[in-house]
Amino acid sequence: MSFYKFLLSLTLAAGSICATHDAQAQTVFSVKYKGDAQVKVYVASYKSDADLVVYKAGYKSDAGDNKGIWYFCDYASDAKKKIFFVDYKSDADLVIFFSDYKSDAGWQNKSKQHLMY
Asked: Pick from 19, 43, 23, 40: which is nearest to 31 by CA?
């Protein structure tokens, strides 16, 4: 199992529920098929390789407005962005790194920021 699939399984296992769409929250949903995604995402092994450092919020109210604090919804209709995790960096629109610390979240390459609006 690849690293990003492991992270995704943890997210889905947490049972997060995203009840409403909030303009303030950076809510995302991981789709099964690349064609259904708005943004293709690659998970880097190192923070220095990422365009965006992402912190996974446990609650929707903790998510930020395009600042790297993501809340994973259970339903695509509740998410602001639909993403697809790719296996190769060359296939990605956006390279992210998952951090355990909320204070690390943020854009390292602001030229890609438009992808998550």
From this structure: 40
Three-class SS state of 15? coil
26 within 8 A of 64, measured Cβ to Cβ? yes
Report how far apart, in Å, the C-alpha atoms of 6 and of each of 59, 61, 85, 98 are: 20, 24, 11, 12
- Predicted confidence (pLDDT) per residue in 34-73, tens digit: 999 999 999 999 999 999 999 999 998 888 789 999 999 9
C-alpha 92/C-alpha 112 separation (Å) is 11
Q: What is the pTM of this model?
A: 0.79
Q: Which residues contact 48 (CB under 8 A, 6 or more apart)?
A: none
Question: Using CA atoms, how far apart are residues 61 and 76, in angstroms rounded to an integer?
Answer: 18
